[in-house]
Amino acid sequence: MNGERRPVGERRHLDTGSIQSAEAVRRSADSLEDRRVKEVFADWSSCMKSKGYSYTDPMKANDDPKFSARNATVAEIETAKADVTCKSTANLIKTWNSVDVEIQKRLMQEHSEELAQVKQDKDSALRIAGSVSSRH
Length: 136
Known about the structure:
The chain has about 140 residues and is an all-alpha fold. The chain is built from six helices and no strands. It has a domain at about 30-110.
C-alpha cells in the first residue's frame, strides 16, 4: 500500500485495533470521572440500597463473583431486575451514553489525522483485495 507492490498473499497489518482499544479505555476512564456520570452512579447506588443491595456502581453488581455460576440463580435474577429498575430511575444509561458520545466526538477531532490515515489504509486494502479477487 502507499505505492508499495506486495506479493499476492502478503498483507500489511492495519493497526486500527490498538487505536480503538486505547481510546475505548481512555474514553471509559474519562466518562467515569465526569460529574454527571458520578451523580447518576450515586443515584443508582442509592436506589439499589433501597432495594437491599450494596453496590457503589453498576460494574460492581455486574461483576459480583457470587453471580459466576453457569446458570442464573434467583438472587442474580432479582439483582438484575433491581439493577434495570434503578438504571431507569436514575436515567443512568442515557446520561452515561451522552457523556460518552461527547468524549468520542472530542477524541475524533483530536485524532482526525490518525483516523483519516486508518481510513485511507483500509480503503487501499479493499481496492487491492478487490483487484486480486477479480483476477481469480
